[in-house]
Every structure is written in structure tokens, then in C-alpha cells.
């Protein structure tokens, strides 16, 4: 039997350990390991080392589960549960010494494809802030021991967040999207970590979030946090190369969806 709370506790324990490793490596100085899809899309030695630690710990605790991570090969496993992992979400912040980065670990059931999986548990840990966000299916979302709830009212307009893809060819389109959503915004943030943006929506620190082209590990844990905090999460154009993730309190989510569905 799958016990979501136990999966969330495991994710939280490993995320903390992994986050402390990332923090230590950051203090020692960041080594760039490679660039990926574009010059701006970087991976550090720490990303790889932290992912290896997470993978090893999960393997010890739950042999047979699948694994889908940002920096290493996927393994479908044989239990029907897959761990979707971003060892350091916000790698560019990490490389520059900006504290907005996080370890993101989610357990999902079913096919390990966004839209087809069922998220069971998740943890997002921001080591430079010492903040741990956790969620389990049906068990709510929490920051430490505090239960989280999304915002429901935005009298002065919505505080929104977004992100931009690494491919410069996508910037014009993403900026056109920003222009469109500013109609309902109080202001806009671009903090550099999708996992933290989603955790902040869950915590009521942001009213809504939207971004095209996220990878599964960027949002697997964060999307469950938002849903378990009473928010709504959806993906527009799911079959396209750059689906649009929208998250927020129910009303902001719906207003964003309406604005972005009109998109040319
Ligand atoms: C990135 C961050 C960023 C988002 C990018 C992601 P990474 O993840 O979440 O906020 O705008 O789309 O790729 O590369 O730092 O793990």
C-alpha cells in the first residue's frame, strides 16, 4: 500500500540532506560542468553531485521505484512510483550566488509524463533560506509545520511570477505573454526558480504563476504544493514543445487561463 505521508517524509529528509550539500558546495565555490540546450542553460558540478546523492538515497529507501531527474538517465522502475527530481532548481541563481534556489523532489504514480501521472508527494527545500515546503496527496501542503493556503482575493491586482526559457528565440513570445497578463497584475516577479515560485503560490506569497516550456522536474513537486494548498494548476498546449503551466488561487488561475488561451 502506498502511504503518501511516508513518501513526503522521505522526500523531505532527502531534500534537506541534498540542500545542505548544495549549500556547502556553494560556499566552496561553484564549478561549471557544462552547458546544455543553450549557452545560458548551465549545469554545475554540484547539480550532478546532489542528484547522485538523491538518487542513491531513494534507491536505498525504495529499491525498484523509477527515477526521472534533470541530470541523469531515466529509469522506469517496477513499482509504478517514479521520483521526479531537480537537484538544484534555479541553477543560474546558484551559480551567481543568489539564494533563490531549491531542491525539488516529487513522487508520482503511473506513467512518468506530466498530465498522465498522479502526484503523490513532494518536497521543495530552499537551503539558503532554510525553508522546507512539503505536500502529500490529500494531506495538504505545509511550510515546516504550518499548513499552507493559496490567496483567494487580490483587490489590488495579482502578484504574479513567471520565468523565461533559455533559448533566446523564445524571448519575444514570452514577453508578449507578459504584456498580456499585466492587465490583471499588481506586479510581476522573475525570481529564477520555478519550484520556489510554485511553493510561494502555495504559501500565499504570490497570487499566481505562469511559464512556458518547463521540464517535469521543475514543477512536479511545486504543482502538488499548489493543489494541496487549495489552488489550481493546469497546462495549456500540453502537446506542444512548450506547454504553458498556470498556477494560482482558483480565481487568478482562471483569469490567467482566460487571458492566455486568447493568445495568438
Ligand atoms: C529553471 C528555473 C527557472 C525557469 C526555467 C527552469 P533550472 O530550472 O526553474 O526559474 O524559468 O524555465 O529551467 O534549469 O534552474 O533547474
From TrEMBL:
SUPFAM superfamilies: Carbohydrate phosphatase. It catalyses: a myo-inositol phosphate + H2O = myo-inositol + phosphate. GO terms for molecular function: inositol monophosphate 1-phosphatase activity; metal ion binding. The keyword Magnesium applies. Keywords: Hydrolase, Magnesium, Metal-binding. It comes from the Bacteria. PROSITE patterns: IMP_1, IMP_2. Gene3D superfamilies: 3.40.190.80, Fructose-1,6-Bisphosphatase, subunit A, domain 1 (3.30.540.10). One of its GO terms (biological process) is phosphatidylinositol phosphate biosynthetic process. Pfam families: Inositol_P (PF00459). Its cofactor is Mg(2+). InterPro entries: IMPase, Inositol_monoP_metal-BS, Inositol_monophosphatase-like, Inositol_monophosphatase_CS. Mg(2+) binds at residues 70, 86, 88-89, 218. Its EC number is 3.1.3.25. The keyword Hydrolase applies. CDD domains: IMPase (cd01639). Belongs to the inositol monophosphatase superfamily. This is Inositol-1-monophosphatase. It comes from Microbacterium hydrocarbonoxydans. The lineage of its organism: Bacteria, Bacillati, Actinomycetota, Actinomycetes, Micrococcales.
Amino acid at each position: 500500500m502506498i502511504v503518501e505521508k511516508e513518501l513526503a517524509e522521505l522526500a523531505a529528509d532527502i531534500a534537506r540532506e541534498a540542500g545542505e550539500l548544495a549549500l556547502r558546495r556553494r560556499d566552496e565555490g561553484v564549478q561549471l560542468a557544462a552547458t546544455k540546450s543553450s549557452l545560458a542553460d548551465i549545469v554545475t558540478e554540484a547539480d550532478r553531485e546532489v542528484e547522485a546523492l538523491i538518487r542513491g538515497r531513494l534507491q536505498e529507501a525504495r529499491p525498484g521505484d523509477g527515477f526521472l531527474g534533470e541530470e541523469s538517465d531515466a529509469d522506469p522502475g517496477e513499482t509504478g512510483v517514479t521520483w521526479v527530481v531537480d537537484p538544484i532548481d534555479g541553477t543560474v541563481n546558484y551559480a551567481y550566488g543568489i539564494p533563490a534556489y531549491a531542491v525539488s523532489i516529487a513522487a508520482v504514480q503511473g506513467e512518468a509524463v506530466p498530465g498522465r501521472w498522479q502526484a503523490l508527494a513532494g518536497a521543495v527545500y530552499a537551503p539558503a533560506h532554510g525553508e522546507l515546503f512539503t505536500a502529500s496527496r490529500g494531506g495538504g501542503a505545509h511550510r515546516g509545520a504550518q499548513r499552507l493556503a493559496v490567496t483567494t482575493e487580490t483587490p489590488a491586482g495579482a502578484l504574479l511570477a513567471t520565468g523565461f526559457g533559455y533559448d533566446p528565440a523564445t524571448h519575444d513570445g514570452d514577453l508578449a505573454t507578459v504584456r498580456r497578463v499585466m492587465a490583471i497584475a499588481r506586479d510581476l516577479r522573475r525570481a529564477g526558480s520555478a519550484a520556489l515560485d510554485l511553493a510561494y503560490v502555495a504559501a500565499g506569497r504570490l497570487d499566481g504563476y505562469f511559464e512556458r516550456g518547463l521540464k517535469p522536474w521543475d514543477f512536479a513537486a511545486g504543482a502538488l504544493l499548489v493543489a494541496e494548498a487549495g489552488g489550481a494548476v493546469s497546462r495549456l498546449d500540453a502537446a506542444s514543445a512548450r506547454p504553458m503551466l498556470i498556477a494560482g488561487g482558483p480565481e487568478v488561475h482562471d483569469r490567467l487561463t482566460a487571458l492566455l488561451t486568447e493568445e495568438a
